[in-house]
Structure formats: structure tokens, C-alpha cells
Amino acid sequence: MSAPILVVGAVAYHERVVPIWEVFREYFTAKGVPVDYVLFSNYERQVEAFVSGRIDIGWNTNTAYVRVRHVAGQPVRTLGMRDVDSDWATLVVTRKGEGFEKPSELAGKRLALGSRDSGHAAILPLYYLAGEGLDAATDCDLVRFDTDLGKHGDTGDSELRVLRAVAAGDADAGAVGAPLWASLKGKADPMVNGLQVQWRSEAYYHCNFTVLDSLDSEVSGRWKQALLEMDYNDPALRNAMDLEGVRKWLPGNEQGYATLIEAMAQQGYLE
Amino acid sequence: MSASGSPPTKPATRVVDAGNIEFGDGLEILLSTVFQAAEPGQTIDVTTASRATALELPGWARSTGHHAERDWKEHNGNGQRFVVRLRRGDVVPVLGPDLPPPSDPMPLRLGSQFHTTDLISAAPGGIPSSAQPNHGLVPLGAIPETGGPDYAWRLNTHDDLWAEELTDLTERASSSQWDATTDIPWNEAIGLPEEVERAVAQVMTFIASNEYVALYVPAKFLPQVNPAFVDVLMWLASHINDEARHVEVFTKRALVGGQRGYALAATQLSLHSLLQEDDFSSASLLLNVLGEGTFIDLLGFVARNAPDAATAACARLAHRDEQRHVHFGISHVRRSQKLDPDSTRQLIAAVEARAARLATLTGLSPVLLESLTVLASGSVSAAALRQGAGAVKELTKLMETNRIRRLRAAGFDKETSHYLSELHTPNLM
């Protein structure tokens, strides 16, 4: 009897999602845990499909994961995440020479945020800055860039707008994810020339593969094992893993989402 | 991470002082060098004067496959310093074996010259006798990374493409380059009698047409050659470069005096049939040995009999290049027959097949014969024309004699050489 095919849902935030999943599909099939994939245009639709059982595994942003936990009506499990998801962080940047010692100094200033459904560029910045004594929602003049809503910041578009706004003087500080900043610095993008990092949040988890607790744990266990065995040094996988931004898959757990769960509840995202 | 933790008790494997260098100003290069030299799992403390850089280090580490462990501040005589401890990841940046230890430098001649012959003979790894059809665009001596795209080269056996003096010929081609703009005394071409200029324009147009096929044939084979055979690639590229300049110089000479010539249909037919040959060695026999060989005699004739110094210079410079191409062809065809006696039959069949396609051609076009005669005469006076006609007859004889001589040099027996010479296109190329 052939192995059951697990259906993975992912959001098509970029054209590269197709070549990534074509390679991954081939990989999982060769590993004896065949998958097919379904692409959604936004995470809300994917969450619906997941909860109603039309997909078996959801490749979720942290925001989508918290939403799934809230609406699934049963426990969910995380099967794995990228190495980069295990210590994601939010940065606050300013123009060079216009920095601050403590985030509370941003009171009364303009703070740029990314899409309001982005955990790292909108929801968590407000949460963590509050922990540093800055109630940005009331103390700052928020400059929001709500682009690509539904994609939870995956496209990076809103963060680029945040950086442009700070560089142009349309905002005094801006929140972006550490990976985007590292990528721009890595390629010496002129956009970041006049900017500098002033603050870094604590680390939190980002995306993960989520399954409903009702999924056969033997099947999900074999799939998880195959995921963790993906080797970045395998020439057949390297390009797809580079496109996905992963060098190593790590087992998932809930602990890195505690702050986002609290933040989304506080900010009314779970109502 | 906020650069506020406490220092660890255990020292790191290495310490790097980044000073004031920031990301974007070379810090990533410094770190990359240090991390490449470290072993997976080793810890490296990066010290920086910049708080912003300290905040960026974890992101850099993650994006390059490493990991940030902790951070703290230090105070020394120069003030506050930020330290971030990173752990080297186990990913390798390049999927290939380690680079081999350095070998001796390549041999140079006369103190500073690096000859192509020495590159080909001394480069590590060398040129293989056969190469995989999926071989990448990998320079000689380079270590290919795995995971590249699959190519599908058609010509993967070195012997099928090579000739003994190949590299030397390539080197000579490089040192014999000339400029069709400045190396021809173009002013000398102006002012010939109208009939003579018309004849020169026609002959030059004919030669330029033929140079096109000499350009297209090697250009057609070059992208089929396995990149492992860089000696063959360099040779073909030099051949193509030569022919591009010949097209240029003869087109310029055809037009410089204000006259225009015909691109004759018979010439087109002959050249079209040459482009249809898909076997490299057969094409070499047809183009290099028979076609360009015959053209050597034609160019020599033009150089000796041209009515002006510009025309003579065009022919003389092209003649020098064509000698290299003919040399290659003779050497290659001779070697092919020696390595595989069965190839003789295939080579003969290629000449026969082309002759069959050209059955409707019965001789050199009268338009061209007439133009060659006037060119050699330098005027249309009866005495001059008699002398010119005599020179053209001698050229025809010389072409046949030399064609047979070249076929013999290429390894064909006497009888076959006569036979193949007779089958050769009356269009000359």
C-alpha cells in the first residue's frame, strides 16, 4: 500500500515558493513521506483550510500559528521550523547620529511600523517597546505601512517602506525584522547607508509547520524526521533551502511564541 | 540581545577585534575570513566599538549559518567595548572538496611571459581526453562546485577536435592581430579607373561572402565543444575573430571606392552546402583544407596583382591568418585519419556529398572570372588584359596543384587527393 499523501499549505508570497515546494515535494516523496502542496494568497485563507482539514500541514507565520491555536478547537503541534525562525528578533533603526539610549526616548516621536498583521514589524515591536517603558501606541506618532496584508510581512515590502521613511525623515525610528536588515547590509544596499540599529528585541520564534493534534502522530513523526534530515550540503536541496532561507530545520515547540500570543491578545488580534 | 549580558567564564577559541569597522565597510569580509578558517562548533568573540554593530552581529551570524550565543560590555582604557560571542555553524559555503595545497607557480618564459602552451601543459588537472557532456563552465584547474546545472555538450572527445600545433597556432593568432581600420592604406584605394574599381569591388564582394562562411562554420561548432577543452575553444575563438576581421576588411575594400558588387547565387549555393556539414572533422576538411587552402592561393594572387596598395594589404594580411587555419585543418585531418583509419571513408563521403549538392555548379562564375582578370590587368587595354588572363589561368593551375599537395599532407593517398580536388567546389570555397 502506498503511503498517504500529506497536503502542505503555504502562502505564495513570492514566485520562488513554487520552485521551493517542487524540490521539497520531490524530497519528501523520495523519503517515503510523500507530500503535495497547495498555495494560498493569504494566511487567513490558509488558516481556514487548515482548521477545516483541507490541508494537513500549515507552513505558518508566527502570527498565523497563534491564530490557528486560537481557532482550531483542539490542540495543535509544531513539527519544525527554520534555524532562522528560532532566534528571530525585531530591530529599531534610526538615522545615524539621531539614536537613543533607551526606547522611552522615542516618546513624542514618529515610529514607523510594517504591516499590521506582521508579528515582527508591527505587533511585537509594540509589545516589546511597552516592556521597555514606551507605550508607542499612545506615546508615539505611529507611521504604519499596511502593505501586502494577509501575507504577514513575508514579502518584506512594508519593512522596506519603514526604512525608506526613516531615511527620508518621514519617521524618526522604524521597526524591522533582523533578517531583512542583515540581508540589506549583506548586499551593501545603499538604502541602509545612513541608518543604524539602535535597539534589538529579545529573540522569539517565527514560522513553523503546524499540524492538528488529530493527525496520526506516526505519520507526522515520519514527516518531521524527514524534514529534520534535510541536508544543506546536499546539492539537490541547497538552492531550494537558500530560497527558503533555511540552513537547518529544527524541531518545533511552543515556547518561543509566548510573547506573541500575549501581544496578539493584548492588541485585539484574537477577538 | 541588547549587549548587556555578563562575560562568560570560558574563553573563546578566537577573538577578533573589529575596531570601528562596520557591516558594509568590510566587517563581513573580515568575519568571513575568520569563520572560514575556524572549525564548526568553535567560538569566536567579536569585539566592536559600535553598539549598532554589536546589535547587528547576531543577524549576520544567522544569515551566514552561524549562531550568536551571548553578548556583554567591556571597559578598557579606550572606553566601552561591545563583545558578541558567535559559534561557527557547520555549513560549508561551497559544495566541493577542500582546495588542494598550493603547487609550484606556473612556468614563465623570458622572465615575464606566460605562454598558452605552458598553461595547457602545466595546469593542474590538465585537459582530459574525454569529458562528461554535463561538464560545467569550469576554467582549467578550477574545482567545480557540485549542484550546478546540467549542460549537454555535443563534442566531448578531445581527439575529435584537436591538432598537434593547436596551442601554438592560437598563440600566433593572438600575436598577429591587426586593425582593419588603421593597418590598411585606404587612401590608396581611391581613384582607380572605373572598370578596374568595379572589378575590384566584385572580387572583394566575392571574398567577403566566402569569409562569412569561414566565420559561421567555427562559430557553429564552438558552442558544441565541451568547456573542458579550453585549448580548442581558444583556437576556434581566434579563428572566428580572424574571420570577423576578414569580413570587415573585404567589405570595406568592396565599398571604399564607391562601387558595389554582386553576392552571386552560385557562391551562396556553395557556401550554404558547407554550412550543412555537422561533423567537425569533415567540416575542417571542407573549410580549412579545401576551402581556405584554395583561398590562400587566391589571396596570394590578389596580393601580387592588386591594382592598388590597399587591396594588396587586405589580401596580404588575410593570407597570413588563413595560413594558420589551413595549418590547423591539415594537421587535424591527418591526425584523425591516423587515429581512426575508418575516418578516411567518412571524410571522402563528406566531400562527395557536398559535390552532389553542388552538381549544378559547372565552373567559376563568368562574372568573377572577368573581374579577377581585370583586377590583375589593372586596366582594360588589350595588352594588359592578355597578361591578366594569363595570370588567372596560372592561378587556376596553382590552386589545383596546391590543393592536391595539401590533401596529400592531410594524409590522403595520391589517387584520393586528385579525386577530392576534382570534387571540390568550383566556387573555390
CATH architecture of the largest domain in chain B: Orthogonal Bundle
Number of strands of chain B: 4
Which blocks of ≥5 consecutive residues of chain A have pLDDT under 50?
none
User: Mind telling me the C-alpha Rg of chain A?
Assistant: 19 Å
Radius of gyration based on Cα positions of chain B: 32 Å
- At CATH level 2, the architecture of the largest domain in chain A is 3-Layer(aba) Sandwich
**Alpha-carbon distance between the two ends of chain A:** 45 Å
Contiguous low-pLDDT stretches of chain B (5 residues minimum) are: none
Provide a descriptive summary of the structure in words:
- The complex is a heterodimer of chains A (271) and B (429).
- Chain A has 271 residues and is of the alpha/beta class.
- Chain A folds into two domains: 141 residues, Periplasmic binding protein-like II (D-Maltodextrin-Binding Protein, domain 2, 3-Layer(aba) Sandwich), CATH 3.40.190.10; 112 residues, D-Maltodextrin-Binding Protein, domain 2 (3-Layer(aba) Sandwich).
- In chain A, strand 1, helix 1 and strand 2 form a beta-alpha-beta unit.
- In chain A, helix 1 crosses helix 10 and helix 5 packs across helix 11.
- Chain B is of the alpha+beta class and 429 residues long.
- Chain B folds into two domains: 74 residues, TusA-like domain (Translation Initiation Factor IF3, 2-Layer Sandwich), CATH 3.30.110; 266 residues, Ribonucleotide Reductase, subunit A.
- Chain B contains 13 helices and four strands.
- In chain B, helix 4 packs antiparallel against helix 9 and helix 8 crosses helix 10.
- The model of chain B has no long low-confidence stretch (mean pLDDT 94).
